[in-house]
Amino acid sequence: MVGPVLKMAGSTALRKAELVYERLKKLSCLPLEGVYVSSPENIHELLCTPSVIRLGVLEWLCTRAYPPLQKQFSTLKESEGEIKIKEMAKLGFELMLCHEGDVDLIKGLVPSSRQLFLMESLLNIIEMPRNISRVSGLECSSESVDEAFTNCAFENEKLLHEIFYSHQLQATLTPECNPWPADLQPLLLKKELPESAHQSDKNTIISQHLEELQKISTALHELKEECTFLCIPVPGSETVIQTLKLAMTDFHQLIAAFTQVYENEFQEHCNHPAPRLSPCGPLFQSVYCLLESCSQELKAVAQFTETSNTITEVVRKRQQIKESFGGGSTVTLYEKIKEIKHNYELFLSALQ
Question: 77 phi and psi, to 5 degrees?
């Protein structure tokens, strides 16, 4: 029966599985001894479908890529196969071939492309010493392979050391550009610009007042946004909250217009100190009165809500408390009304 992995395999996956299988046969993979498959579909199913042979192939690849793992596996029992799977996943993570703890990849429960990539990468690691010896012109003895591998690692380390400690790399990472241009030097060196000789105390005071006006304008704008939800438009009527919103909007627009005109037109030609805003003006008094009316309305709404809750609680308790009506048994008001209704229905049926 063809597995679900094989059903989704394409021609590319089948071809890659064939190449991996040929490389395994060329290296005399022990778990594949006595196994004869020829069609690409059967090869793909053998390498990418969970089975004992497939797990044995992965174990053989891992021990060949990292020989100390063979000694560790030899001490494990057959019932400890899960430990082998975890160790192989750990090796794949250390070789940056899979995620940490990716046991599903080892078990063959992931797409075939990932499985074939793992096998192909392990084969590259196993064949790396042979390729090095072939390029170096050495014989395929173990001592020559180890020596070629050591020399290659030493040369790579030396090259990386020269690159990282070279003057060109350091100059690229920390570039220098002296002398700085006159207009960029204060910014790049993070120095404050020199104060102007023509700056006066009046300009400082004006700037402070402008900042205060800007803060007031920002606060009023935030207050306007917070009070938006209180304004529920009612056709044909005008509430205190709507009037308050309109006054606050006008106030904000006046301050914003004054700030803009003062900064753009009057600031350069004004020799007088900034005007002082009096908190007793008619606009402030109007806003205060509207706020007071709004507060009173909110208090009335709160009292109405509290009274409604109290009435609801009294009715609920009245329905739950058992009392004696006319010297009879103690029952709730609901039960007594239900009993009277039942007796009335019986009386009507008797009359009919």
Answer: -90, 170
Enumerate the domain spans of the chain: 4-137, 142-176, 202-298
CA separation for the pair 138, 84 (Å, rounded): 35
Query: How high is the pLDDT of residue 327?
Result: 65
How far the first Cα of the chain sits from its last, in Å, is: 81
CB 19 within 8 A of CB 116: no
Query: Which residue type occupies 146?
Result: D
Across 165-179, 249-263, 303-317, least confident range: 165-179
Structure token pair of residue 70: 């063979």
Residue whose C-alpha is closest to residue 254's, from 228, 284, 274: 284
Tokens 């778990």 appear where? 31
pLDDT digit string, tens, across residues 302-327: 898 888 888 888 877 777 777 776 66
pLDDT score, position 48: 92
- Write out the two tokens for 173: 């990472």
